[in-house]
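Why do we bother with a discrete structure alphabet at all? Because it lets us treat a fold like text: something you can write down, compare, and reason about line by line. To make this less abstract, here is a complete entry for TRAP transporter, DctM subunit. Read it the way you would read a sentence in a foreign language you are learning: slowly, and without expecting to understand everything at once.
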Amino acid sequence: MTAILFISLFFFFLSGVPIAFSIALSSLVAFVFHGDLPPVMIIQRLYAGVDSFPLLAVPLFMLAGFLMESGGISRRVIEFAEALVGWLPGGLTAVTIVAAMFFAGISGSAAADAAAVGSIMIPAMVSRGYDPRLAGAVMASGGSLGVVIPPSIPMIIFGFLTGASVGKLFVAGIIPGLMIGISLMTLSVLISWKEGIRETIPFSWRRLVVTFWEAKWALGAPVVILGGILGGVFTATEAAAVATFYALIVGLFIHKELRWKDLPSLVIRGCLTASTILFIIATASVFSWLMAIEDIPARIASGILSITRDRTLLLLMINALLLAAGTFVETTAALILLVPVITPLLPSLNMDIIQLGVVVVVNLAIGMLTPPLGICLLVSCSIANIRLDEIIRRIGLFLMVLILNLILITYWEPLTLWLPSMMD
């Protein structure tokens, strides 16, 4: 059945069938050929795949992001970011990265991050004479932070798959997320300096204080979410509910830019977006269950260990596998298909499950910048009105910076484990 499972999966992939349906159809084919499994098991596994309290955080964080975007929060964050770093060479590129970092602390989704910030920043950069390809590349790389800086939907899914604490995964992503964001901002400033881009906006303490005060409710959202988790006040799922309520109150009664009549469309938008992810989780859970009953993860792990038991080489191989998967497979599906294969290697890696979670998520975040399935690239291309091949020419340096950060996160444990250890 193993051969049938994977051959049918690749066949449907190559035929252009959407990822969720490819996984579902290949699982169905394997069921038919197995013969001993009752068809009702498919329904049971589909239901069991999403019957999880932690997964409730997925639609809630998505809805919170949409509410904050419509409630004027993203605009206020960008105005504060411009006052903070807009005076640097190529200031708008730095503003884009900083704004993406702040919004990442709200949305939990890279695509939402790229769309919310990019819809404002890419036109602003182009109107001031920036190369549209550079503007798109900066926004795409900044958007990838949406899954590294907590709250992060891929981290929620990883916690669901492995039983790891989602709260600790969120906290573990803070330092790597800030480190990646600062390095991307530094690179964007250096590129702008080299290309002769200069900003005429002088730094003003008064403007910084005014914009900070205007954005205080927006900046308070990540503090409430992470502060509550760190303080043990609520779980990650409860934090998602708090974030949604917070966004609703701020948008309706404080900023007053969110209208009651907007709520039904925002709820529907959030449900549709979340249902796509949850449908992939449901179908992929059937596929991963079939892999488990065939003992495929253990056999793959055994095969890898037969090649080498050296920790450095094993981590290098895992990163290569995840980077390749992130390039060709949607993030949620990649998590559900690969995490059961990687986790049996943990004893040989002598690696904490929390660190592994961050490494996996950073790998898949890099995959969002590589064609053909680089969602952040596609969103940025759409906003900048450029072709995919045009933005690829400018994304290379940003990918190199991300990979260097990945190496540090993989081999230097304190980057991911120091803050979670404080929770203990």
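What the structure line is telling us, in plain words: The first helix runs from residue 2 to 14. The CA atoms of residues 69 and 370 lie 26 Å apart.
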